[in-house]
Design brief:
about 300 residues, alpha/beta, eight-stranded mixed β-sheet, about 25% helix, about 35% strand, globular
Length: about 300
């Protein structure tokens, strides 16, 4: 695993209804409005200037990773060229950098069609995050990606990007770029693209408060409350604008407990995605045993 990445920085999510996306992000989920323009609505979850940008601009959804030094953009490009020579990639021009609030960046299209943007000097506000309600959010924890070709996407993220495997659950793979259990999770699916965003909160109380709020606001809950056997995180997941899943989560394993043990293989079963047995309506979180049971009923 490479150690050039500083953090999982932001998501760019194309949506048809910017007003609806903003209403969900602020009025329901509890993110703080950030810089807005005619085509982009940005929202904060911590001291960075934004963690998610809903955009009306054309193009694929994007996941960004930060590097600390400009030279590391060259290193990342060389790594991608050696490992994944056929994938489309480009340096972001001045207009694209301005829209993303970064100094420089490199974009590559992953096999599942999501753009991975490796960025240098993203804007940090330094101002305390203050959400529209006390949701307990402390930051963007991880991103979930849907993949029709798991082998190609795992190869891209491990050899091309340099992430390390923490665990597998069936064919789903959890990838780390720092000492957290995972920042990227790949799930086998019948479609490609961005699946979900997981937001860290400050305790199990915030997870449960989020669950009750979703119910009160009639927001579809697709999974949880539950506990992820792989990472140890407690979570609840709801469906937001454009079908993107949004989760509150707390308790993800970090440090030597993750980095020192090597990856594990969990069974291809629903209980590998929730130890508490919470049912899911998202097929990506269902093991083959669960699919077989549904087919037989």
């Amino acid at each position: 695993m490479t150690d050039i990445y500083r953090d999982l920085r932001y998501l760019r999510v194309p949506v048809e209804d910017l007003d609806g996306a903003e209403a969900f992000a602020t009025g329901i989920f509890g993110l703080q409005p950030g810089d807005h323009d005619d085509a982009n609505r940005r929202f904060r979850s911590d001291a960075r200037n934004y963690a998610i940008c809903y955009t009306a601009e054309a193009g694929p959804a994007a996941v960004a990773l930060t590097v600390a030094h400009a030279r590391e953009l060259d290193e990342a490009e060389a790594r991608l060229e050696a490992a994944c020579p056929g994938l489309p990639r480009q340096r972001l021009d001045a207009a694209a950098c301005a829209a993303r609030q970064i100094k420089a960046g490199l974009s590559v299209i992953a096999p599942n069609g999501v753009a991975v943007e490796i960025v240098w000097r993203p804007l940090t506000s330094g101002w305390r995050y203050h959400g529209t309600r006390d949701a307990g959010i402390t930051g963007l924890q991880s991103v979930q990606l849907a993949c029709t070709d798991m082998a190609a996407n795992e190869d891209f993220w491990t050899r091309g990007i340099g992430a390390g495997v923490s665990d597998w659950a069936g064919d789903a793979v959890f990838l780390r770029i720092d000492d957290a259990h995972h920042r990227i999770a790949l799930y086998p699916s019948d479609r490609d693209g961005l699946l979900g965003a997981v937001w860290e909160v400050d305790g199990i109380n915030a997870v449960m408060q989020g669950w009750y709020l979703f119910q009160a606001r009639q927001v579809p809950v697709v999974h949880g409350p539950g506990r992820q056997p792989t990472s140890g995180a407690m979570f609840v997941t709801a469906r937001g604008p454009g079908g993107l899943l949004h989760s509150y989560a707390h308790g993800m394993e970090r440090g030597e407990a993750v980095t020192g043990r090597g990856p594990r293989q969990f069974a291809d079963a629903a209980l590998s995605h929730c130890a508490w047995g919470s049912p899911s309506t998202a097929p990506e979180f269902l093991g083959k045993d669960e699919f077989r049971g549904r087919d037989e009923r």
